[in-house]
Design goal:
562 residues, mainly alpha
């Protein structure tokens, strides 16, 4: 007993003298927690796949040796995933647009474009939108609140792990990509070191802002979205035919004094964060929610007050059924009546995202029309728009309201009803009603976007009806259909939302990520407008006609509460 006590005291003394040893131990525990969580999640969802249902039993959760082996594999996969993420970042967000849309420019100008875009995205945007200290996530909550890891030691471990892996992955990825633009390995090293040090310094700035004004900047959604739009616009605008756009990012990376200042700032900030800073107050602030599993009502109230908050006026105005007369009751019965009642009592919650998206499209329209009127004569060419048409895939993916409406349906309707077998058995009936309802909203969004783009094209073509206009309309409307079916079908077949009110289904995340893959493929293939519109139309119709049979076959067993 004395030996165990002495050994424990010795370890505590060693940790006191060498704080980094405790940091590395904490990193190891973080990895173990993440790997165990990932393994259990994969077991849970793969058990429910129709073709694997009988192969994976409940005993898989207790198979310690097998899970350790899976954990070792998961470590390798996480390293590979980190490298792939950095390669996709440099390759897709920076190198690919330069190669596709500036291939006719000289090598020196392409290098300047690459450096400018890297500065805008990795320095300006990331410095404001990314801060691990003030980030709220499940791992932080579990480690600090449930596992009782000291907040300061945990945050030091997070910072060391985050920016060590960030530097390694980014350096390897940039070294691989840099050869295309004539950047040497040493130059790539200096670029990544500079950006890493700036990101460390940004963590300190976020911390100072919170302590001075009690503002968690990364939670200010409006500011973050505005910063992202402005920095991305600054990054990609030089790729267009608009002349005179300054490549200030390339000029910044070309200033030795600025590079030296960023390096010094990062080293100084890292020293302060790892040696002089107590993170207890900040970590307690961003993990102040009760455990969702232990206090579901508290978490439900938090979510309803924010993302899916119900307007009480809708309830007061619709306290009685919307079809109280005999004639109305005769028109709407069963699930159709329930659906109309749901819409009436959540009208504000449902209409708000539609109004916001239409307003955003109007703002985009004003910007496009203004640029067309100012630059059309000398700098903008309607024929050059063909290469940008694949961007409509990402635009419609984010503009359509399917994902938001599925969350509203889950939180305010289905979370209780899907516990009953009769409701799951009749999934086709309410799926059909909701599909038509969502289609109506998303088609309006698609038509609004197509109208805005048509006005832009007509200004560029001096009032003539250009041949690209019809493919634009066909693309936006069929993409509205595609993403409506996509979001609602995944909701019924995978039902990704858990009782903790978050998304944990890896299959759902994987299938959603395929949208980005399709966008990349469309850009690489450089399809003509009519070819792209024909492919998207064919896929949308196939998706639409296969939805009802898939829901009829699988929803009864899959559309359930997790």
């Amino acid at each position: 007993m004395l030996l165990e006590t002495d050994w424990g005291n010795a370890k505590m003394e060693l940790r006191r003298r060498n704080p980094m040893l405790g940091v590395f131990n904490t990193i190891t525990r973080m990895w173990q927690l993440q790997i165990a969580t990932l393994a259990n999640r994969i077991i849970f969802y793969t058990q429910r796949l129709p073709w694997l249902k009988g192969l994976i039993s409940e005993q898989a959760y207790a198979a310690v040796r097998a899970k350790r082996t899976a954990g070792a594999v998961a470590v390798v996969l996480r390293i590979i995933a980190g490298l792939l993420e950095s390669l996709l970042y440099f390759g897709v967000m920076i190198a690919l647009p330069v190669v596709l849309w500036a291939d006719e420019r000289e090598a020196g100008e392409r290098l300047q474009l690459f450096m400018h875009m890297y500065f805008c995205i990795s320095v300006l945007m990331a410095g404001i939108t990314s801060a691990k200290i003030m980030e709220t996530n499940e791992v932080k909550y579990t480690a600090v609140r449930l596992m009782r890891i000291a907040p300061t030691r945990f945050m030091r471990a997070v910072l060391v792990y985050r920016y060590t892996t960030f530097f390694l992955y980014q350096w390897i990825a940039l070294t691989v990509i840099a050869g295309i633009f004539g950047i040497s390995a040493l130059q790539a090293l200096m670029l990544v070191v500079t950006v890493t040090m700036w990101r460390v310094g940004s963590e300190w700035l976020h911390l100072i802002m919170f302590r001075q004004s009690n503002i968690v900047l990364v939670k200010k959604t409006g500011i973050i979205v505005l910063v992202m739009l402005l920095t991305l616009a600054a990054a990609y605008l030089p790729l267009t035919t608009v002349d005179g756009v300054p490549l200030f990012g390339a000029m910044a990376f070309g200033q030795p004094l600025l590079i030296a200042l960023l390096l010094f700032f990062g080293v100084f900030s890292g020293y302060v964060l790892l040696k002089q800073t107590d993170f207890t107050a900040e970590v307690r602030t961003v993990t102040n929610h009760d455990d969702p599993l232990l206090n579901m009502e508290q978490m439900m109230a938090d979510v309803q007050r924010k993302a899916v908050q119900v307007n009480e006026r809708d309830y007061r105005e619709n306290s009685s059924p919307p079809y109280s007369s005999k004639e109305g009751a005769g028109r709407k019965k069963g699930y159709a009546y329930m659906h109309e009642l749901f819409i009436a009592r959540h009208n504000s919650l449902i209409r708000a995202p539609l109004r916001k998206r239409l307003a955003a499209i109007m703002v985009i329209g004003v910007m496009l029309v203004s640029s067309a009127l100012l630059f059309a004569a000398d700098h903008l060419d309607v024929n050059s728009l063909e290469r940008f048409l694949p961007l409509l895939i990402l635009a419609m993916f984010h503009l359509t309201t399917g994902m938001h409406l599925c969350k509203v349906l889950f939180y305010h309707c289905d979370i209780t009803l899907m516990r009953y077998h009769f409701y799951r058995k009749n999934a086709v009936q309410h799926f059909r009603l909701r599909l038509g309802w969502m289609l109506g909203m998303n088609v309006r969004i698609g038509a609004a976007l197509a109208t805005v783009l048509s006005v832009f094209v007509m200004i560029l073509s001096e009032g003539e009806v250009h041949s690209i206009m019809l493919p634009i309309w066909l693309l936006t409307l069929t993409l509205a259909v595609f993403f409506t079916v996509h979001h609602l079908l995944l909701y019924y077949l995978l039902q990704p939302y858990s009782t903790e009110l978050n998304t944990k289904n890896p299959l759902f995340t994987l299938l959603n990520s395929l949208i980005s893959v399709c966008f990349i493929v469309a850009m690489l293939l450089r399809l003509t407008p009519w070819t792209l519109a024909s492919v998207v139309t064919t896929l949308s119709l196939a998706y639409l006609f296969s939805a009802l049979p898939l829901v009829s076959k699988f929803a009864e067993s899959r559309f359930s509460v997790k």
